């Protein structure tokens, strides 16, 4: 016994020290972990508490809410964090008396008491006597209209009651199922064992007290893995035992080994509590950071965000939504409905949408609708609403976003108005290449209604000759994006005889083409006329000069460069003083003043070529004032021939007899040529009769030959000499030659008849331009073989309206004349004739040129005169080019000639013929 007593005395300080260490450790951490005790005190009713705090009625105080205890006996209110700072007796008294939880504001005024159902209920704490809302279940299970809740919020927010707390039933157990939300088998300990485990009577001896501490400590070591706070509370109360209950003498009965285990268990528990505390602090910081970030995101995104419950009361949102509703912060809008906001006039519409979302559980996305702002203005918003579902799939609220699209709607309306009233053609083409939208201008231009246009596309209303251009235009747009493309092509119209030229500007976006077109038909016609005028001026026989007041040449045409033998750029760097050597600065200034006053003047001067030679010119000058600049427009004609004629006239005057004889010879020649017409008509008639006989007999002979040829062919094998075969070939060639000769005689007869009648209106048909050229080449093949090289560059897709025979005659005469000019160039000279064609606007330009000696300058002005020839009186009649000119003019065309006296530069005849469409237009106007 003495040994045991000594051992007891030895171990007693160790046990007491261990208990003191545990108590100090608990006291040190208790202040920081008291919040976890609150979680335990609510147990699984914590979820209900969260629902309560998130209710709109509590959001008024959520930012400043505090949790504390209320003593049922004294109505004393204490913050949980201050409990351990009170003196021991006060703290012990608080825990020994019945208590419940309370919510406080920042000044520790009672906001709400979390009161157990059926116990310690105070009448003055009831929320709504008439509504019989006196408990947690009553408040949340009884559906109240929004107006009633709003009234409760305003009038009773200082006395809200909800049944969440800690209480015991008749058996001393936590009243869990009805009040706390979990069943009896989830109960952990009787409440009096947790909070009132120390009774007024003292323990029988200290050893039993210490043993009880050890056993309960071991039990709470394991229980503390899930509910550590009750053990801390229990330990706190044990440490508050009266000093007289501790008897050191009884410690000798304790088991030292068990006490060591208890100490290690307590130390391990302390470490585990410290770890749990660190995790909770970290989780709390993370939750606070997440909440701040979420709020920052919501208030930063450029859209309005809100969420509301199923009754239409707003639970939250971002600052943009609050400002749109006329408030500074979102807390001011909590628990309000659309009826309370500035857009209350739209409340019925919004409530109907919300009910449909809740009933169907389907969202409304990108709904464009009107809304009245706080200034009373009607705004357009783009709003989306989605249902909020809980884990059971039930709708608990609605999340919505919206943004103001008033400016976009106004811009769209302005675009629509511009689209409608624009005088330009506007259209939108869809991915299927059909019109999606057309404006009134396009309908009026094409003469088709909108409904009909929307069934077709741009290509379908394009003129047939421009379909390829329009198709390529549309294809390019669909293969590019955000790139402006321009092109011009014609549209077919129903109200006008002629197609309309439209200049298009278009861009492709989002697989659609947005196109704008302008009618430029008149502009194109002006451009064509201007180009024709420029061409006429450029190709005119007379020389044209534009001269400024200083005498500098501003513009010259091709005739000027040919006449003066300068290149264009070289001549543009010259002045009037370089080409008129007799002109001085004083003379020019005097001429200019006279021109300004009289607006026009006439003079004869002498011009000098680049090589120094001179020639006389006749000048008709005109004054032009255009866009602030002054010009002398001079038309200059080479009068060398006229001067020569004047000289000849003078010579004729001097030698009148010679002149009379010469004139008599010319008149005789003219008489002979005049009689040629009558002779040609008779000759044509006389030749035509035998030619008809020959042509008929050739056909008759061909029939008999077709019968005889098979018989001779059969005997060909019996003739070893091959004479029959040769005979067959000779007869075939002879018959073919006879037919060709008869046809050529017929053509000659027709030409003689045409000349004798002075031309006739022939039936014109559509044909390729290349066809009459090929005919002429065939007719001249016998002569072309004698050293002439004919080159033709005529596209096969050029079509004209013509009399093919007459047009063949044109090219026969022109090529014959070229060959006549090339005959004297020598056998070793490469005699070349070219026929080229190109399309210029609505006309075809055909050039017939050679590399011969050219046409003498004195003959250029008379080249198309009847009976004029430069070949000599015995070789030509002078009718060829006159007939050519008549045929070309009869085909609504023009013919001009360009030539130079320089050897090898030759001559060029330019024939301008209308295209097929242009010819029809010209003839149509002539008939009208």
First CA to last CA: what distance? 152 Å
Uncertain spans: 7-14, 30-63, 72-99, 114-144, 152-255
Largest sheet: 5 strands, mixed
Which structural class matches the secondary elements? Answer: alpha+beta
Q: Tell me the number of helical segments per DSSP (H or I, 4 or more residues long).
A: 30
State Rg.
59 Å
Mean pLDDT: 70
**What would the principal axes of the Cα set say about the shape?**
elongated
Percentage of residues in strands: 15-25%
How much helicity do the residues have?
40-55%
How many individual β-strands?
Answer: 27
Strand order of the largest sheet: 2-1-3-4-5
The domain tally reads 6
Compose a concise summary of this entry.
The protein has 928 residues and is of the alpha+beta class. The protein has 30 helices and 27 strands.
How would you describe what is shown here?
- The chain has 928 residues and is an alpha+beta fold.
- It folds into 6 domains: 2-280, no CATH class; 302-408, Beta-Lactamase (2-Layer Sandwich); 422-519, PAS domain (Beta-Lactamase, 2-Layer Sandwich); 537-638, Beta-Lactamase; 655-760; 762-927, Histidine kinase-like ATPase, C-terminal domain (Heat Shock Protein 90).
- The protein has 30 helices and 27 strands.
- The chain has a 5-stranded mixed sheet.
- Strand 14 (500-509) and strand 15 form a beta hairpin.
Secondary-structure blueprint:
Blueprint: H1 2-42, H2 46-54, E1 66-71, E2 77-79, H3 88-96, E3 99-104, E4 110-114, H4 136-141, H5 146-156, E5 160-162, H6 176-180, H7 191-195, H8 206-223, H9 228-238, H10 256-300, E6 304-309, E7 314-317, H11 319-324, H12 347-360, E8 364-372, E9 378-389, E10 395-404, H13 406-421, E11 425-429, E12 435-438, H14 440-446, H15 450-453, H16 467-478, E13 485-491, E14 500-509, E15 512-519, H17 521-539, E16 543-547, E17 553-556, H18 558-564, H19 568-572, H20 576-579, H21 585-598, E18 600-608, E19 614-626, E20 629-638, H22 640-654, H23 656-715, H24 723-756, E21 765-768, H25 770-779, H26 781-784, E22 788-793, E23 799-802, H27 804-822, E24 831-840, E25 843-850, H28 857-860, H29 880-890, E26 894-899, E27 907-914, H30 916-927
Parallel strand pairs: 4-5, 22-24
Antiparallel strand pairs: 1-2, 1-3, 3-4, 6-7, 6-10, 8-9, 9-10, 11-12, 11-15, 13-14, 14-15, 16-17, 16-20, 18-19, 19-20, 21-23, 24-25, 25-27, 26-27
């Amino acid at each position: 016994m003495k040994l045991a007593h000594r051992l007891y005395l030895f171990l007693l300080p160790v046990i007491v020290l261990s208990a003191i260490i545990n108590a100090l450790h608990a006291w040190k951490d208790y202040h920081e972990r008291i919040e976890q005790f609150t979680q335990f005190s609510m147990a699984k009713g914590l979820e209900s508490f969260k629902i309560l705090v998130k209710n709109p009625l509590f959001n008024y105080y959520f930012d400043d809410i505090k949790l504390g205890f209320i003593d049922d006996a004294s109505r004393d209110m204490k913050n949980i964090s201050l409990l351990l700072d009170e003196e021991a007796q006060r703290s012990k008294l608080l825990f020994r008396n019945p208590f419940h939880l309370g919510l406080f504001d920042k000044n520790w005024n009672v906001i709400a008491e979390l009161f157990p159902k059926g116990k310690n209920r105070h009448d003055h704490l009831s929320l709504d006597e008439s509504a019989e809302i006196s408990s947690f279940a009553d408040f949340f299970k009884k559906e109240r209209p929004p107006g009633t809740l709003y009234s409760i919020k305003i009038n009773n927010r200082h006395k809200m009651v909800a049944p969440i707390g800690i209480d015991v039933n008749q058996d001393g157990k936590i009243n869990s199922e009805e009040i706390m939300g979990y069943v009896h088998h989830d109960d952990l300990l009787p409440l009096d064992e947790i909070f009132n485990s120390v009774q007024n009577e003292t323990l029988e001896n200290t050893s039993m007290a210490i043993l009880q501490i050890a056993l309960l400590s071991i039990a709470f070591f394991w229980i503390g893995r899930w509910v550590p706070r009750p053990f801390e509370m229990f330990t706190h109360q044990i440490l508050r035992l009266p000093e007289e209950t501790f008897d050191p003498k009884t410690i000798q009965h304790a088991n030292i080994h068990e006490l060591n285990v208890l100490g290690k268990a307590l130390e391990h528990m302390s470490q585990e509590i410290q770890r749990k505390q660190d995790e909770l602090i970290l989780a709390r910081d993370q939750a606070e950071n997440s909440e701040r970030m979420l709020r920052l995101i919501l208030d930063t995104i450029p859209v309005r965000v809100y969420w509301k419950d199923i009754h239409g009361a707003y639970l939250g949102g971002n600052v943009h939504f609050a400002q749109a509703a006329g408030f500074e912060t979102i807390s001011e809008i909590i628990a309000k409905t659309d009826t309370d906001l500035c857009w209350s006039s739209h409340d019925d519409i919004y409530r109907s949408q919300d009910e449909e979302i809740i009933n169907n559980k389907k969202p409304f996305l990108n709904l464009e609708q009107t809304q009245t702002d706080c200034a009373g203005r009607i705004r357009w918003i783009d709003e989306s609403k989605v249902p909020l579902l809980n884990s059971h799939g039930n709708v608990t609220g609605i999340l919505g976003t919206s943004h103001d699209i008033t400016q976009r709607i106004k811009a769209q309306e302005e675009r629509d108005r511009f689209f409608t009233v624009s005088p330009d053609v506007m259209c939108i083409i869809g991915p299927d290449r059909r019109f999606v939208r057309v404006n009134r201008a396009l309908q009026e231009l094409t003469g088709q209604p909108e409904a009909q246009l929307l069934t077709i596309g741009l290509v379908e209303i394009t003129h047939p000759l421009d379909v390829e251009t329009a198709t390529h235009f549309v294809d390019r747009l669909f293969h590019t994006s955000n790139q402006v493309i321009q092109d011009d092509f014609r549209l077919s119209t129903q109200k006008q005889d002629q197609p309309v030229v439209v200049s298009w500007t278009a861009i492709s976006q989002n697989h659609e083409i947005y196109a704008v077109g302008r009618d430029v038909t008149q502009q194109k016609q002006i451009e064509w006329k201007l180009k024709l005028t420029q061409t006429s001026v450029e190709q005119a026989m007379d020389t044209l000069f534009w001269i400024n007041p200083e005498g500098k040449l501003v513009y010259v045409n091709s005739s000027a460069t040919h006449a003066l033998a300068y290149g264009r750029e070289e001549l543009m760097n010259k002045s009037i003083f370089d080409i008129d050597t007799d002109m001085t600065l004083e003379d020019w200034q005097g001429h200019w003043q006279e021109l300004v006053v009289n607006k026009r003047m006439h003079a004869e001067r002498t011009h000098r070529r680049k090589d120094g030679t001179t020639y006389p010119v006749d000048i008709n000058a005109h004054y032009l004032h255009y866009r602030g600049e002054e010009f002398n427009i001079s038309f200059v004609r080479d009068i060398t021939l006229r001067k020569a004629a004047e000289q000849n006239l003078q010579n004729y005057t001097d030698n009148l007899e010679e002149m009379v004889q010469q004139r008599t010879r010319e008149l005789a020649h003219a008489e002979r040529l005049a009689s040629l017409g009558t002779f040609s008509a008779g000759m044509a008639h006389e030749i035509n009769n035998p030619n008809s006989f020959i042509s008929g007999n050739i056909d008759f002979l061909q029939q008999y030959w077709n019968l005889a040829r098979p018989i001779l062919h059969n005997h060909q094998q019996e003739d070893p000499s091959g004479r029959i075969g040769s005979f067959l070939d000779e007869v075939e060639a002879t018959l073919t030659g006879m037919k060709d000769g008869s046809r050529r005689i017929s053509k000659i007869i027709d030409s003689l008849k045409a000349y004798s009648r002075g031309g006739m209106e022939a039936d014109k048909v559509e044909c390729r331009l290349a066809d009459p050229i090929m005919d002429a080449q065939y007719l001249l093949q016998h002569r072309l073989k004698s050293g002439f090289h004919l080159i033709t560059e005529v596209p096969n897709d050029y079509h004209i309206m013509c009399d093919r025979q007459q047009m063949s005659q044109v090219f026969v005469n022109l090529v014959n004349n070229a060959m006549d000019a090339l005959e004297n160039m020598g056998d070793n000279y490469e005699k070349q004739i070219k026929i080229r064609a190109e399309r210029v606007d609505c006309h075809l330009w055909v050039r017939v040129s050679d590399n011969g000696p050219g046409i003498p300058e004195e003959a250029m002005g008379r080249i198309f005169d009847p009976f004029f020839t430069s070949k000599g009186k015995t070789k030509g009649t002078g009718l060829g080019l006159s007939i050519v000119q008549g045929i070309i003019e009869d085909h609504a065309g023009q013919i001009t000639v360009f030539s130079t006296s320089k050897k090898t530069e030759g001559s060029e005849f330019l024939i301008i013929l209308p295209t097929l469409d242009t010819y029809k237009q010209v003839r149509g106007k002539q008939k009208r």
